[in-house]
Amino acid sequence: MRKAVVAIVGRPNVGKSTIFNRLVGERISIVDDIPGVTRDRIYSKVEWLSNEFHLIDTGGIELGDEPLLVQMREQADIAINEADVIIFMVNVREGITAADEEVAKILYKSNKPVVLAVNKVDNPEMREEIYEFYSLGFGEPYPISGSHGLGLGDLLDRVVELFPKHIGISEEDEALHFCVIGRPNVGKSSLVNALLQQDRVIVSNIAGTTRDAVDSPFVYDGDDYVIIDTAGMRKRGKIYESTEKYSLLRAMKAIDRSDVVLIVIDAETGILEQDKRIVGHAHEAGKAIVIVVNKWDTVDSDQQAMKNFEDEIRAQFVFLDYAQIVFLSALTKKRIHTLMPQVRLASENYTRRIETSVLNDVIMDAVALNPTPTVRGRRLKVLYATQVAVKPPTFVVFVNDPELMHFSYKRFLENRIREAFGFEGTPIKILARKRS
Ligand code: GDP
Ligand code: GDP
């Protein structure tokens, strides 16, 4: 199911990131100690009443020393390309500027729905001043105040009204969606091509089976898959297309539509800083993951080399211990056949359900083996557990007091669940709930 994407566009200092942070709020991540993930966030999920959508702050994509008007054009372009609805933000205190008019001109031609938000309307008297903004040509201006959190409800109600009709309706096909992410030049496109040309792959070219131009449906060993190609569109000469933030944004959008994420690492260069940031974001999304070490033809590919590389990955990405690693060459196609079985295994585990009675046997054995901790004289009591969701598998453990369930004990229970059931390739979540 695809969620709507909303982008905020506007000059520097009108208050875009203030509004972004307010709407996104404090989101709980599975682990919060991954470097670089929470800083400078420009893309995130927003929950508004019963609606969920993704929000982009286009102002967060830095375009170096480009003149302001060029930056504005590029950011408006990003909003048009990536979003279903655009929030065009201006500032009541400065009125309409040349840069606002530039943005308006581009948005006007795009045919994308635009909602005009006039920020910094901090008190009711200032509402008089929003009328001049009618002249931008986007109908009624919505007065808001980022600092005081005013007017956001009306603004979002309007944004939600403008979502395209098909949004939120389940996709009719049951195919497993996966995407290939990684820094530039690790071999993502080569890998997608190699996969689609494999012996056991039948690429379907039936018109209308894809919604997105870069989705490739195919059949492997009797099962339906869709590969979402993030590398597919690029090098069209836009300034922003070569920025790291923009490629990350594209990758995150693809991850959101995927069940399994393939993270490609280049064996020739080894793991770099940018790999770590990408991996952190992929992990945070809570999807099944397969790590692909590509360009395996460039190293002496004996067992020891594989072991060494695996140790390096395990050391660098401690939080990804559930992900399986495959070594292959997209160029020579050596070992390429080892990939799809891992994609399938990861997706099976991602959607796997464990019967409550079997789960409780494992949990109770675990508790007997490792007595629950006490905090200030009070002992954690584990009563029973049940799986409440898949994608990823999520378990609720009922206890006397959730405060007593520390991270380390959760981790212990997770390890026991993994030992008992496998769950290779997928994260699992454990939530503690009170039941007396
Ligand atoms: P951006 O460059 O568009 O992302 O703008 P920022 O969110 O960084 O905000 C620029 C400045 O405007 C900051 O100093 C904010 O504190 C301030 N600001 C944001 N929203 C409001 C508002 O509603 N009222 C007032 N008075 N200041 C605001
Ligand atoms: P992307 O930017 O991640 O999509 O990377 P590309 O697929 O465009 O590949 C970048 C470069 O790496 C190209 O010159 C490819 O030919 C090369 N390449 C890709 N896969 C392999 C591989 O398995 N082995 C070797 N030696 N080169 C590869």
TrEMBL record:
All copies of domain EngA-type G, residue ranges: 4-167, 176-351
Binding residues annotated for GTP 2, in chain numbering: 182-189, 229-233, 294-297
Molecular-function annotations in GO: GTP binding; ribosome binding
Annotated TM spans: none
Record PROSITE patterns: G_ENGA (PS51712)
Binding site for GTP 1: 10-17, 57-61, 119-122
GO BP of this protein: ribosome biogenesis
Top-level taxon of the source organism: Bacteria
Keyword hit for Methyltransferase: no
Subunit structure: Associates with the 50S ribosomal subunit.
Function (record text): GTPase that plays an essential role in the late steps of ribosome biogenesis.
The protein's name in its UniProt record: GTPase Der
UniProt organism field: Amphibacillus xylanus (strain ATCC 51415 / DSM 6626 / JCM 7361 / LMG 17667 / NBRC 15112 / Ep01)
Species lineage: Bacteria, Bacillati, Bacillota, Bacilli, Bacillales
